[in-house]
């Protein structure tokens, strides 16, 4: 009985000991969570940017050139049907159908105009034939009159001098009449030639324009120029083309779609202007994917020289292309990528969590634990990653930094 009681009492004491140890541990952890101990360790400075995967090279599908012909005045066209985005297509497969109703309407107008121009051309030819025939007959009659006057002149030698002068004057007048009729004929002939030529040019211009409209009708159905994965482009508003959208026929308008070659892959990202000075061409990049459990290394291939506005950012951004060192069958165009640009690697660096660094009027500071309580310490910082930032001046190894701003510094005194 006594042994049993001793065992019970011993067990109870052990429970109390374990409970005390557990409580002390919890209190210690709770206390340690209030501070971050400064250490010198390896550090990787990163700039993380979301991106989109695409092929380095791609076949661009734009609005056919005939649709952008100024004579047709087709400034934009509505999409009435399109293939599925991301679909594998073969050369000649359907891609997009544009609304051709305005083409039909304007072609009918040109056909009506052509009928009118044809009528004017025929009238010009008929008027020319009639007028020139009449003038040629006038010249023929004038020549006959001249022959008659010549005979009269020759016979006038047997008449009085006055009659001879009259006969000569009549002959000269007939000669002048022929010369005038001949000049008038040539002038009228040139005038009518110009009229007929202009009418013919108008007919030819109408025929050419109608031919353009016919080609535009066929071009309204756009097909794939070669095999590939079909990826539709984005309009001026940055939104991907879809049914009922309008596309611009302007030569330098955004492409309708692309057929990317995924044998060489790039990740397209946008870097804020405040960060663009941190990176350079050739920097290494670690690329991961939301839809693929794989990390592929790459490097910065190109940085845009000019910033641009982007709907997803509140400041200017620069387009940056990252070329991946390898491709993968799982990579698809437009897939989201996570890009960690490696700015620098340090074997020994002093750094602290980003969330314990505060900023006021451009000055960065944190709170150090001292024997007298919390001390506001101004610091100089360097590069950073998603979680930590390097501190180059202001703290030392072993310092304890508060994990949050103290509400009342006096409460921390002596802790």
Structural overview:
- It is a single chain.
- The chain is an alpha+beta fold.
- It folds into three domains: 36-57 and 261-415, Elongation Factor Tu (Ef-tu), domain 3; 63-97 and 222-248, OB fold (Dihydrolipoamide Acetyltransferase, E2P) (Beta Barrel); 104-218.
- Helix content is 35%, strand content 34%.
- It has three helices and 19 strands.
- It has helices at residues 2-32, 101-155, 161-219, and strands spanning 35-37, 40-61, 76-82, 88-89, 94-98, 221-223, 228-229, 231-232, 246-248, 257-272, 284-289, 292-303, 317-324, 336-353, 358-360, 363-370, 373-384, 388-393, 400-402.
- It has a six-stranded antiparallel beta barrel with strand order 2-10-13-12-11-14. The protein has a four-stranded antiparallel beta sheet with strand order 6-5-3-9.
- The radius of gyration is 46 Å and the shape is elongated.
- It starts with a helix and ends in a 13-residue tail after the last strand.
- The relative contact order is 0.17.
- The model is unreliable at 22-32 (pLDDT under 50).
């Amino acid at each position: 009985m006594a042994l049993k009681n001793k065992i019970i009492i011993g067990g109870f004491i052990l429970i109390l000991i374990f409970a005390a140890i557990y409580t002390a541990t919890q209190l210690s952890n709770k206390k340690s969570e209030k501070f971050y101990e400064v250490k010198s360790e390896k550090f990787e400075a990163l700039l993380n940017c979301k991106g989109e995967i695409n092929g380095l090279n791609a076949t661009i599908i734009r609005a056919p050139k005939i649709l952008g012909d100024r004579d047709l005045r087709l400034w934009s066209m509505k999409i009435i049907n399109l293939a599925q985005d991301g679909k594998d297509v073969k050369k000649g497969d359907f891609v997009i159908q544009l609304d051709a109703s305005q083409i039909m309407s304007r072609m009918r107008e040109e056909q009506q105009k052509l009928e009118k121009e044809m009528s004017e051309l025929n009238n010009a030819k008929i008027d020319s034939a009639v007028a020139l025939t009449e003038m040629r007959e006038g010249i023929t009659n004038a020549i006959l009159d001249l022959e008659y006057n010549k005979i009269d002149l020759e016979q006038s030698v047997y008449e009085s001098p006055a009659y001879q002068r009259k006969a000569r004057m009549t002959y000269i007048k007939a000669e002048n009449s022929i010369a005038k009729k001949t000049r008038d004929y040539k002038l009228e002939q040139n005038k009518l030639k110009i009229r007929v030529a202009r009418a013919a040019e108008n007919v030819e211009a109408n025929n050419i324009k109608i031919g353009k409209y016919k080609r535009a009708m066929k071009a309204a159905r756009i097909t794939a120029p070669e095999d590939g994965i079909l990826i539709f482009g984005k309009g001026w508003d940055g939104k991907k083309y879809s049914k009922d959208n309008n596309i611009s026929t302007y030569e330098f308008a955004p492409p309708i779609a692309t057929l990317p070659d995924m044998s060489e892959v790039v990740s397209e990202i946008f870097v804020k202007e405040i960060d663009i000075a941190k990176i350079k061409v050739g920097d290494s990049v670690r690329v991961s994917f939301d839809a693929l459990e794989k990390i592929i290394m790459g490097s910065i291939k190109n940085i845009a020289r000019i910033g641009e506005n982007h709907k997803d950012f509140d400041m200017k951004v620069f387009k940056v292309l990252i070329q991946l060192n390898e491709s993968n069958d799982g990579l698809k165009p437009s897939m989201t990528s996570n890009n960690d640009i490696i700015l620098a690697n340090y074997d020994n660096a002093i750094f602290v969590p980003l969330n314990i660094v505060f900023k006021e009027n451009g000055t960065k500071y944190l709170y150090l634990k001292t024997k007298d309580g919390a001390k506001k310490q101004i610091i100089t910082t360097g590069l950073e990653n998603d979680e930590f930032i390097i501190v180059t001046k202001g703290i030392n190894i072993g310092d304890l930094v508060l994990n949050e701003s103290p509400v009342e510094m006096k409460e921390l005194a002596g802790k």
